[in-house]
Structures are given as structure tokens and as C-alpha cells.
Design goal:
Blueprint: E1 4-6, E2 9-11, E3 18-24, H1 31-44, E4 48-53, H2 56-59, H3 62-66, E5 68-71, E6 74-76, H4 77-83, H5 88-101, E7 104-109, H6 112-119, E8 126-128, H7 136-143, E9 149-152, H8 158-168, E10 176-181, H9 196-203, E11 208-212, H10 218-225, E12 230-234, H11 252-269, H12 281-287
Parallel strand pairs: 3-4, 3-12, 4-7, 8-9, 9-10, 10-11, 11-12
Antiparallel strand pairs: 1-2, 5-6
Helix pairs in contact: 1-5, 1-11, 10-11
Length: 291
């Protein structure tokens, strides 16, 4: 399996799991909350934080933006989407703060204009959201930036995934990480289907990861045990906060538990060679009648 470089981290089999703490829109339009979430990620020991960038008037139709939707920014869906979208000033602060905290940051860009916007900050990689997996033009446009791409695969058939991967791995390719994902918030345990990680590993020669929207930590540990080289989870200051993604996110203690368990996983899994440990020998002598 190929290995991919993002910043100073190498991602692939035999490497420590790359842990991405997705802030997404859980900042609720506040740079202060975004900075607090960056602090949560760095304190826990995550490798990166991820945002999302959308040009609202391109991604959504006028009809969709005009729909009534009471929210902290106004009375329409458009008020909400614009209120949650960071611009130049906010991302300049985020960029500087992540440099100060020595943590990687990147974003999922939902349209070509957003790709150009984020490109000004020289991100180490780009994320393709599951909703954009079938947008061939966006895939090609993002690939042309020459940075590694992380592809989420929720709501997608295997044929759709193969088609997207076929575009992204055309030479010259900067590299690809494919994330298994279920697109509900929060996801039901019976719909996680983590064995797809094994299926993707057999089908593609790229690092395979997992983007989880479920409640709790254990399933993400299982995903890593199945061979996921990257784990992405949404984070929040409090799951009871206002916002559509908060309930599917990990609070600070949850993220700390996730990172700690993922760092211990290689030690727990071992090398696969059956052996008698020195610590077992006195117990063996004490308990066995023969041998």
C-alpha cells in the first residue's frame, strides 16, 4: 500500500494513525469558539483540525436559501448558511492560530471558488466531502492544486467511489486517502458497516481511513484495528450546544480518550508472532503439571 505525506506526517500501513479533529461548522460562526476547539484538538494530541468552506450562493439554490428556518442569524436557511461561513479575516486568524499551536489545518471545499480561497493559505491537503464525491469538475479542479486529497465516501456506491478514485489517481497524482463513512448525524451503530474498511483495502492501493459520525469512541478504535490509517471525528465543546453536527461530535474528554486509545493500539495489537513472555514463565511453572 502506498504512503501519503501530509505536513510532517506520513500516513499508511505501519505508521501511527493520523487523527483529524473536524471542527466543521461546530464553531457556530465564532472564531473564539473555533480557537477553543483548536485548543481541544492540540491538548488531546490530534494531528490536524479540519474546517469546511462553501460559497453559499454557488452550493445552494436561491429557493433553498429562501426557505424559512429559524436560527441565531435570522429566519431563513440562507441566513444560517451565511452566518456559519468564515471569510478572509476569520481564516487569517485560524491560520495564524494553528501555526502558533503547531497543528495542521485543512478544509473540505464544496466548490471551485472555495478551493481557490483555501489555496491562498497553502494547505498541506484538501478534503472532498461525501456530498461532492460525484462532482467530477470539482474533483479535477481540486486535484490540479497538486496537494494530497482525502476523499470521504458516505452515501456512495462502490461504482461511484471507483469513478471518483479513477479521476483522482490519474497522473500526475499528489496522493489520495479514502475514508469509509456513513452520512447520518449521528450514525446508528448498525449502519457503520466497518468491514467496508477491509473491502476498500483490498480494492485500492491507497491508505484507507474512517470518518465517523457516531456517538462514542469504541467504533473508531475498531476501525483502526481493522486497518484504518486515518481517523476523523467531529469535535465540540459540548454536545448540547446549538448546531446540527454537535450531537455527532466528541467532547474534549471523548477526544482525549480516542487519541490515547489510538496511540496505545499498536502496542496492544503486537507483532502477530505467538510467544511466551518472560512475565508468563513463573506462572507457567506454577500452574502446568506437564511441560
Amino acid at each position: 500500500m502506498k504512503k501519503i505525506k501530509i505536513g510532517n506526517r506520513t500516513i499508511g500501513e505501519g505508521e501511527p494513525v493520523f487523527i483529524s479533529a473536524e471542527i466543521g461548522i461546530n464553531h457556530n460562526g465564532s472564531v473564539d469558539i473555533a480557537k477553543q476547539l483548536i485548543d481541544v484538538a492540540t491538548t488531546a494530541g490530534a494531528d490536524a483540525v479540519k474546517f469546511q468552506k462553501r460559497t453559499v450562493d454557488i452550493v445552494y439554490t436561491k429557493e433553498e436559501l429562501a426557505k424559512p428556518r429559524e436560527n441565531p442569524f435570522g429566519a431563513t436557511n440562507g441566513d444560517l448558511k451565511r452566518g456559519l461561513e468564515f471569510g478572509d479575516k476569520q481564516y487569517m486568524e485560524i491560520n495564524q492560530y494553528c501555526k502558533q499551536k503547531n497543528i495542521i489545518w485543512f478544509a473540505s471545499c464544496w466548490d471551485e471558488k472555495s478551493v481557490d480561497f483555501i489555496d491562498r493559505f497553502n494547505p498541506p491537503c484538501y478534503k472532498i466531502a461525501s456530498a461532492s464525491l460525484t462532482d467530477d469538475n470539482l474533483l479535477k479542479y481540486t486535484k490540479a492544486k497538486g496537494k494530497p486529497i482525502i476523499l470521504s465516501t458516505a452515501m456512495s456506491t462502490m461504482n461511484e467511489i471507483e469513478h471518483a478514485v479513477g479521476i483522482l489517481e490519474q497522473k500526475p497524482t499528489p496522493g489520495l486517502i479514502i475514508l469509509h463513512c456513513t452520512g447520518t448525524y449521528p450514525s446508528k451503530l448498525e449502519e457503520l458497516n466497518l468491514n467496508v474498511i477491509t473491502t476498500l483495502k483490498k480494492k485500492f492501493d491507497w491508505p484507507i481511513g474512517y470518518s465517523g459520525h457516531e456517538v462514542g469512541v469504541p467504533s473508531s478504535i475498531i476501525a483502526a484495528a481493522l486497518g484504518a490509517c486515518m481517523i476523523e471525528r467531529h469535535i465540540t465543546l459540548d454536545r448540547a450546544m446549538w448546531g446540527s453536527d454537535q450531537a455527532a461530535s466528541l467532547e474534549p474528554k471523548g477526544l482525549q480518550m480516542l487519541v490515547s486509545n489510538l496511540r496505545e493500539l499498536p502496542v496492544i495489537l503486537g507483532d502477530g508472532v505467538k510467544k511466551v513472555f518472560d512475565s508468563e514463565i513463573p506462572i507457567k511453572k506454577k500452574l502446568r503439571r506437564i511441560g
